[in-house]
Amino acid sequence: MHVIMTIQVLARMLSEAQAALPRECCGILLGTGNRFTEARPAANVHPEPETHFEIDPQALIDAHRAARAGGPQVVGYYHSHPTGAAEPSATDRAMASGDGRVWAIVGTDKVSFWQDTPDGFRALSYLVEES
Ligand SMILES: [Zn+2]
């Protein structure tokens, strides 16, 4: 499986990660199926934001409510690793719910994509489409 997004979605995650330093940024991926149409930043409300993230619960509630009202679906989440690799950390694995959504992880030099399956994170490839 692969995911598809515009260069704007990819660039948004990279710029958010840069702006949040030295903290982790986080946000919600909106779209349909495996296509992301928006990376929407959210506040990182975790008390240790340099090494953890917790997406502002209100932002999630709002996104799910908008999805039920016919808006884009909540297809995944993104967060950054300010000093680490673009792959799930032990903390990420502990937090994963196995709900099938996609996690985008912004490392120091790239973004990687993972599906949160009941059997753990599965690496996904990605395509950037013309906008
Ligand atoms: Zn992480």
Structure description:
InterPro entries: JAB_dom_prok (IPR028090), JAMM/MPN+_dom (IPR000555), MPN (IPR037518), VirAsm_ModProt (IPR051929). Pfam families: Prok-JAB. This is M67 family metallopeptidase. A hairpin with a 2-residue loop joins strand 2 and strand 3 (35-42). With 131 residues, the protein is an alpha/beta fold. It is built from three helices and seven strands; from the N terminus they run E-H-E-E-H-E-H-E-E-E. The chain has helices at 7-20, 57-68, 90-95, and strands at residues 2-6, 26-32, 35-42, 73-80, 102-106, 111-117, 120-129. It is globular, with a radius of gyration of 13 Å. Zinc ion (ZN) binds at residues 79, 81, 89, 92, 105.
Main sheet: which strands, in order across?
1-3-2-4-5-6-7
Quote the beta fraction. Answer: 35-45%
Overall 3D shape: globular
Total number of β-strand segments? 7
Annotation keywords:
131 residues; alpha/beta; 7-stranded mixed β-barrel; 24% helix; globular; binds zinc ion; metal-binding; M67 family metallopeptidase
In short:
Pfam families: Prok-JAB (PF14464). The protein is α/β, with parallel strands linked by helices and 131 residues long. The protein is built from 3 helices and 7 strands; from the N terminus they run E-H-E-E-H-E-H-E-E-E.
Write the layout of secondary structure elements.
Layout: E1 2-6, H1 7-20, E2 26-32, E3 35-42, H2 57-68, E4 73-80, H3 90-95, E5 102-106, E6 111-117, E7 120-129
Parallel strand pairs: 1-3, 1-7, 4-5
Antiparallel strand pairs: 2-3, 2-4, 5-6, 6-7
Bound molecules: zinc ion.
The site of zinc ion has 5 residues, from loops.
